[in-house]
Write a structure and sequence with these properties.
Length: 526
């Protein structure tokens, strides 16, 4: 039986060996309960919280399970996997689909019995309940602090620094002016308003005039939007109260409208959130009805009229995002050699037709110093991919050139290693027979020494055989997946004219795991 031990801890520390402790406990459990364990592989996620299932170690474990390399997953405690019931059910269903056993050492759960399986789900429920209880307690405390006007944690808004505040026996945090940042932000706002810029125009202006972030990096539209719309620096006036109330925000009861006299700043708690999208956490703006708004303890440096002018500027620059033209084949698949996903632009010709180009957004926004990739016609790269697809269609063996190189090839095949093991075992048997016949002879000690050497050789060959077998199973699984993708390629080529541009693009996204253009060569991987 081949074991996969999974270890995780939430925070990375050089001095911590929490995952190593987990591995040691799990290995001791294997040695104690299994007479002849096969290979033991470690899968580690150091510095990953349990609410995020998109972790390198977890992903590698799933890949090896799919390839048939793991027969049993063993963990220290069930909360090392996750605390969310939906996430755990998906993970456990995945294990059952591949006939993989599951053991948790400290929880003492054996999933081979119905009772053990039920106990496992109960353990997940209680683990999730513990997390939710802690989260609720922390959230209630943060809401209470925000209602009092204190800063609740996290990076301070641009223009402020965080300072401790001692009130009697209580220690809190509040915001104080950072003059250099205030001047920087006001300069950006003046440029934005005086030129009636859109965010994209503002981004281009900053790039052309060498205006960067305070850390010296390129200013993107997202960064500019966050800088301009942050409400903490605005006077808490009656007009601002009405503005947030009209948006549907939760207005704090201890901050009634008649107290919004403009002498303090504004605290907005819950303005951002981190929902799960595709198994990953995405930091994004929360709906206004989730915001909790109160009067801050800190001082403001922006008038409400200036804030309204900024928000009004956004309303002047709206446009339709509906796609007017067909998508090229590699839209959303193609990447530049610098790692960025390549965008597309269109140019209208004199005859009214439109040509489409792929370009690197890093070069477009940050200049040739950041990336020297020039734009290229979409038709050229699309034809290159279709030519590769046609090669695969006519020669199935050609597909191997476009598979991922796992880097785990072994010099010996499993057949050769198994033959060597049989020869070694035969020698041991002969020597054992000779030893039984000459137990009292002086030659006995030499026979024993030779048997011990052969035993070490046998165990070494066995480990090599297990590694080679795992590599062959992985290669077979990869080839099977590739052949399924070849069927999709054949379907695309045979019915190319019957598919819409969007459908062709979707098939390309499903088939291509990697597609990189370096300016001369197009590299693809299925």
């Amino acid at each position: 039986m081949n074991f996969g031990i999974y270890g995780r801890k939430s925070y990375f520390k050089d001095t911590s060996d929490s995952t190593q402790m987990q591995f040691s406990v799990c290995e001791a459990h294997i040695q104690q309960h299994f007479e002849e364990p096969g290979s033991i592989q470690h899968y580690e996620d150091d510095g990953f919280v349990r609410s995020n299932m998109d972790r390198p170690g977890m992903n590698q474990l799933k890949e090896d399970i799919s390839a048939g390399l793991v027969d049993c997953v063993i963990i220290y405690k069930i909360d090392r996997v996750c605390s969310d019931m939906m996430d755990f059910c998906s993970f456990y269903t995945f294990l059952k689909e591949h006939s993989v056993k599951f053991i948790t050492v400290k929880d003492g759960i054996d999933t081979t019995t119905p009772l053990g399986e039920a106990m496992m789900f109960l353990a997940v429920i209680f683990s999730g309940l513990e997390v939710q209880t802690d989260s609720l307690r922390i959230t209630d405390n943060m809401i209470h602090l925000a209602a009092k006007g204190f800063w609740c944690g996290g990076r301070p808004p641009l223009g402020y620094s965080i300072t401790p505040l001692e009130l009697g026996t209580k220690s809190h945090k509040t915001l104080v002016f950072n003059d250099a940042e205030i001047q920087y932000k006001n300069r950006l706002i003046d440029i934005f308003l005086d030129n009636h810029f859109s965010l994209q125009s503002m981004e281009t202006y900053c790039k052309n005039h060498g205006i960067t972030s305070l850390t010296g990096s390129f200013l993107s539209t997202n960064q500019l939007y966050n800088i301009f719309t942050s409400p903490h620096c605005v006077q808490a006036t009656a007009a601002m109260y009405d503005y947030f109330e009209a948006k549907g925000c939760i207005m704090d009861e201890d901050s009634p409208r008649d107290r919004w006299d403009g002498t303090h700043g504004i605290i907005v708690y819950g303005r951002t959130t981190e929902p799960k999208v595709g198994g990953k956490k995405r930091h994004q703006l929360a709906p206004p009805e989730k915001w909790r708004v109160s009067i801050g303890y800190h001082q403001p440096y922006m008038t409400d009229q200036r804030y309204f002018a900024i928000m009004g500027q956004f309303g002047h620059n709206t446009f339709s995002k509906e796609c007017k033209y067909d998508l090229p084949l590699l839209k959303g698949v193609l990447r530049c050699k610098c790692g960025r996903s390549m965008s597309m632009s269109r140019k209208k010709k004199v005859d009214g037709s439109v040509s489409t180009w792929y370009y690197c957004p890093r070069r477009m926004r940050a200049g040739s110093e950041a990336c020297d990739m020039v734009q290229i016609k979409a038709d050229i790269l699309d034809r290159k991919v279709l030519d590769i697809f046609r090669t695969i269609q006519h020669d199935p063996a050609a597909i191997k050139r476009y598979l991922k190189d796992e880097g785990r090839k072994t010099a010996d095949s499993t057949a050769n290693l198994r033959t060597a093991m049989e020869r070694c075992q035969a020698k041991i048997s002969k020597l054992a027979t000779a030893l039984a016949a000459n137990a009292e002879s002086t030659a006995a000690k030499y026979i024993v020494t030779e048997i011990e050497k052969l035993d070490l050789e046998y165990n070494s060959l066995r480990k090599k055989m297990l590694t080679a077998s795992a590599g062959e199973r992985r290669a077979a699984s990869q080839l099977k997946s590739a052949m399924e993708k070849r069927e999709e390629i054949n379907r695309l080529l045979e019915r190319f004219d019957n598919f819409s541009a969007a459908e062709r693009n979707q098939i390309a996204q499903d088939v291509l795991a990697e597609c990189v253009w370096d300016g001369e060569t197009l590299f693809i991987r299925l």
